[in-house]
Known about the structure:
The chain has four helices and four strands. The chain is of the alpha/beta class.
Amino acid sequence: MGNKATILFVCGAGLGSSFAAQMAAEDVLNKYKVDAKLDHVDISTAASMPADVIITAQNFKKQFEQFSIDETVTPIVYLKNIVSSAEIEEKLIPILQNKGIV
Length: 102
């Protein structure tokens, strides 16, 4: 078990879809026994918060491109299906492995 990960789930208002994605990700994180601090926020808040990973829906990509988020520090995971544990696992776990968290 590595360090604690900080993962931000982001949607337009920081409510509905980001919370749904957070629930789906919890299943994946539990499976890998990842200790993570999870938060769901809106896009502008996410741009100013330190995090190991940002998870959001594919349709927010254009909005994220307006912020200067250094993706070498904070990779952004864009999901086609925000409640797909399989997609979250496929995209998130390699990032956490690279950071030495998994």
